[in-house]
Amino acid sequence: MFQLTPVVKILLIINIGFYLASLAFGAPFNEMMSLYYFESEKFQVHQLLTHFFMHGSFIHILFNMIGLVLFGSYIENFWGKQKFIILYFVCAFGAAAIHTGADYYKLNPQIETIQSFQREPDANTFSRFFTSSNEEILSSEGHQLVGELESELRNGINPKAQGEAINLMNQVIRYQLNIPIVGASGAIYGIFVAFGILFPNMSLMFLFFPVPIKAKYLIPALLCYDAVFGFNPMPGDFTGHFAHLGGAVFGIILTLYWTRNNNNYQVN
Questions:
Q1: For the whole model, what pTM was predicted?
Q2: Distance between CA 68 and CA 40 in Å, rounded?
Q3: Helix axes 159-177, 81-119, angle to 10 degrees
Q4: For residue range 128-183, what is the model confidence (pLDDT) as tens digits?
Q5: CA dihedral defined by 73, 75, 79, 82, rounded to 10 degrees?
């Protein structure tokens, strides 16, 4: 019979408590507890801990808590409280680290492009900054302004056009720096992969796709999905795919480390 385990129960209560607090206190609470990029003016160190108890919507917390209860209870029963707590928090922190690394890989070249333009204003440098990813951020008025500024810069650099160009690029960077990350998904993905390694032949089902699939097939499929859309994001997709993958990577490392010299787990 299924049993809700002690640590899972505590984590469930904390996550629900944070979600209710976010509804009660609104934007100030959300901004304080969500995780911002380390170069954002909104970043605070405590966010590294609080962000993975925050969720952006009811559906977000619902699916994460279903994963926590169903898979987390299996893992806690199998490994015990101490190892389960380590798995949960290491994967949550690991997810934040990988997500931040992916943001750095994306944002640092853009910041360097702005600095290059400030040193040597050039229409090509300005145009290069507005890659497809940056174009998605702009409104129709923003696209029009980019076109007008690029045309003006090609006709000769003047202080007014240069200042407007720098201001627009800084606005785009500031917007991206201030996109927060929330959710327990990184920790949940760590639990998923641990479950898949320990119980590979157990059949699982999606709520919206009620066909049983063995864990050893379903969980790698989820990781492939995140890899595809992490490297090739769709317009308007704000899912932290690299956070999911980061949690999974740390979950795999811990699981393999703990089971390497322990024969008491399923491998068939």
A1: 0.87
A2: 31
A3: 180
A4: 888 766 767 777 777 888 888 888 888 877 888 888 889 989 988 998 899 999 99
A5: -70
